[in-house]
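Fold this sequence, please.
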Amino acid sequence: MKKERFKSILLVFLVLTDVVLGSKILIDKKLWPDGYNFFSNMGIFYSNIMSYFSDNSKQKAQVFSPESIIINTGDQTTRTSLTSNNAEFEELYSEAQKLIKSAFSSERGNIETINKETLTSALSADSVFLNYPFEYDVSLFSALLGLKSSAVSEFTDKLSQVVITLSSRPSVYVANLENNDYIKINISADDKKLASLCSECTNKYTDNSVINYSFELKFDQPFGTQKTTLNPLIRIYSTENEYPVITSANPILNNDNTINETIIDNILKAFNINPSTMRRYTEAGGTIVFVENDGILKIDTNGYLEYQATGRGKEISTSNNFYADIMDIASLVIDVNSAAFNNASVRLSGHEDNELYFDYVVSGLEMRIDNTKADAAVVAKIESGYLKSYRQLIRSYQKTPEKLPPPGFFTALDSTIDEYSQSMNEIRINNMYIGYTDNGSVGTKQANWIVEVDNVIAVEP
């Protein structure tokens, strides 16, 4: 009897041990390709974006970061502009993110609708201005903060700018310029760390030029016969900084114009394509085609990569959550860049239905893709956790020692007005910022003005 009881106890012990060890293997070991972990993705909807990308936070956290951060001091001569190229950017953004999360966690009673003048008053005081590269859906923005939902969605459905006032009672302001929605959120979170970081940056970057917002110069209002108005939050600099000249290279080709097979193999690994089971052939013109059960992958000699699903496509996530899918695609983009030895960061630059858009960020500035074959560095389409299509311009960017200033703000503005005044009775400039432009050719790229006129992108020559 004792022997049978001992057997039963031993059996229970072995089963429990098996469960514990099996669970540990499933949780710790990556059973999917590098960059994908099923159990990690199951919880990503409710986790903070910084934590999700903790394995390579400096690069990956930038996927959802603002285009720029402006520290306002109440004086245009001491305002400071930061991009991801500044050493202080990441910590400043992390502290600002905590206060924004506090605001988006607020109850409805702490949120109120305000007018544009109240928002602009906040920009004229001690505050931090975060400018995002596109209009975020509030639901997506909330999810990236690690929230299931937010009462902010009852006041506006999108946002592109956030302002945090630095005071004894800090507030967070949200702007949706597309619909002229402006809201204020009172928070109880402590802003002392953020205020301290801002003070350090202001003292360090004392040689910055004067920074005005468009509304301060009345450029957001029509006057006389003028037919051009600017987004009130566009920044206008009295003098332009110098920016590095960038070289763009196509890593798919070696110096003798032969295919770099090492990079091709690395890209196949990023897509989890097994070289021993797929079929490979070369089309006329040199495009390499890889065929497998899930889809067809093409890489041409100009560096364009295209994946097209066959059937359901490649499974990238089993969480059946669009927000988790975005992060998995971001990981895939970075894996492809690593495969091509491209250390440029990437940033989510838009989303529409099930399509996601990403652009490269080089030396803290957006690399705008502007050619007939692509209008974003990466375009990916996902449906219910399956990758349906994926296009990427594979490039390697390097800074050169040379630095040059772009044309002055008013030179770029006059050029845009001249270009569109003949075909448009009224010109509405939605955004205007310094960036790089890649037309698909290799060689040097100089920083220049990128101007968004309604739905038109105007790149200064």
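The longest helix spans residues 2-28. Residues 91 and 140 are 22 Å apart (CA to CA).
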